[in-house]
Specification:
- Residues 6-116 form the CarD-like/TRCF RNAP-interacting domain.
- α2 (68-79) packs parallel to α4 (105-115) and α3 runs antiparallel to α4.
- The chain folds into two domains: 12-64, Thrombin, subunit H (Beta Barrel), CATH 2.40.10; 68-165, Up-down Bundle (Methane Monooxygenase Hydroxylase, Chain G, domain 1), CATH 1.20.58.
- The chain contains six helices and five strands, in the order ββββαβααααα.
- The protein has 166 residues and is an alpha+beta fold.
- It has helices at residues 57-60, 68-79, 89-102, 105-115, 126-147, 151-165, and strands at 12-15, 19-31, 34-43, 48-53, 63-64.
């Protein structure tokens, strides 16, 4: 193997478009007379395995779990005031999806914060709920992996922070 490995089997990693996964193998495959080294990453929630070439991993945005400080920044973001732009929903929805797919916990926390509705606030549309739950789930998964707790506990912690901030 000539490629330098940034991760080893068993590492938890974040792939921006799918969230937290675990490297289950590092495989060699012959493709068109070339040998390619791949990270095999499983995403249990989606029941999916993704194979990412080692040499393309950095460009694909594959990264280690966030530091505790970055998660703390995300938690602080949840407590801030929501910033809803006065633009059409379709445009805002695209921006929210881009933030979720960036894989950055602070950007994802912004989406959760902006779309969170307290019990006293108006109802969300179906698409707002979908995006909110996708962002909450993505943030909870990374929080759970960093804090070594289960995803349900992580979600409860996030919701408690949101309720306190409301």
């Amino acid at each position: 193997m000539t490629d330098k490995l940034d991760f080893v089997t068993g590492d938890y990693v974040v792939y921006p478009a799918h969230g937290v996964g675990r490297i289950v193998a590092i495989e060699k495959h012959a493709i068109a007379d070339m040998e390619v080294v791949l990270y095999a990453i499983t995403f249990e929630k989606e029941r999916m395995t993704l194979k990412v070439p080692v040499m393309k991993a950095k460009n694909a945005g594959l990264r280690r779990l966030s530091s505790k400080d970055r998660i703390k920044d995300a938690m602080e973001t949840l407590q801030g005031p929501s910033k809803i732009k006065r633009i059409m929903w379709s445009r805002r929805a695209q921006e929210y999806e881009a933030k979720i797919n960036s894989g950055d916990p602070v950007s994802i926390a912004e989406v959760v914060r902006d779309l969170h509705r307290g019990t006293d606030q108006s109802d969300q549309s179906y698409s707002e709920r979908q995006i909110y739950h996708a962002a909450l789930e993505r943030l909870a998964r990374e929080l759970a992996a960093v804090e070594k707790i289960d995803e349900r506990k992580a979600t409860e912690r996030l919701e408690a922070v949101l309720a306190k901030a409301a």
